[in-house]
Specification:
Number of helices: 8
Largest sheet: 6 strands, mixed
Structural class: alpha+beta
CATH superfamily of the largest domain: OmpA-like domain
Radius of gyration: 20 Å
Number of domains: 2
Order of helices and strands: HHHEHEEHHEHEHE
């Protein structure tokens, strides 16, 4: 029987194992660390689900496959996107879980209240789509956002429609629609103060995530 105490005990084991993994393997690549950390998490999950070695092995395998990695392909893509978006106000970052994130402001992506892509966004999406058809392990997620002007009944579908427009553009350039997930958050996740015009402009945006799964 799984109790709260046993879960907390195993979470402690997980934290210790992850610390050893990250500090003890100084020569490991980012890709190796990502897959290894996933394996540790999966192994502990297997132990919580079942005490036998088979459960532990299954958990380790799922963890290694499930985590994102930061490979040379991802680093190359980050540099390419930094060059493609220079001077546009787009923020290109590596997230804590090894996803490449592009936060694209409204003034180069969509007009206020509209979901059709502006001309300034097209070169960015063109560069983003480049080479993805040859990299099947990479996944794309697009999230639309709005400011707090207007009601949820307007903002929620607008944010989804903006993400949908970006996906349609990528698909037209050879990216499989099955690899692109979309979501709309309306005004629920602001990154700036909606009380100012500048803050509202920053909140009207789309975020595009690119992630690569670890391999067996």
């Amino acid at each position: 029987m799984i109790t709260q105490k046993s879960v907390m005990t195993h979470m402690g084991v997980l934290a210790s194992a992850a610390a050893v993994l990250l500090t003890g393997c100084a020569t490991a690549t980012q890709e190796q660390k990502g897959a290894g950390t996933g394996a540790v998490i999966g192994a502990v999950a297997g132990q919580i689900l079942g005490r036998d070695s088979k459960s532990t092995a299954i958990g380790a395998g799922l963890g290694a496959l499930g985590g994102y990695i930061w490979s040379k392909n991802m680093e190359d893509k980050k540099r390419a996107m930094e060059q493609a978006t220079a001077g546009t106000g787009t923020v290109v970052t590596q997230t804590a879980d090894n996803q490449l994130k592009l936060s694209i402001p409204n003034d180069i992506s969509f007009d206020t209240g509209r979901a059709d892509i502006k001309a300034n966004l097209r070169p960015i999406l063109d560069q983003f789509a480049q080479g993805l058809s040859q990299q099947p392990s990479m996944e794309v997620r697009i999230v639309g956002h709005t400011d707090n002007t207007g009601s949820d009944a307007i903002n929620n579908p607008l944010s989804v429609n903006r993400a949908q427009s970006a996906r349609d553009y990528l698909v037209a350039r050879g990216v499989s629609s099955a690899r692109v997930a979309i979501d709309g958050r309306g005004s629920r996740e602001p990154i700036a103060d909606n009380g100012t015009a500048d803050g509202r402009a920053r909140n009207r945006r789309i975020d595009i995530f690119l992630a690569e799964r670890g391999q067996k």
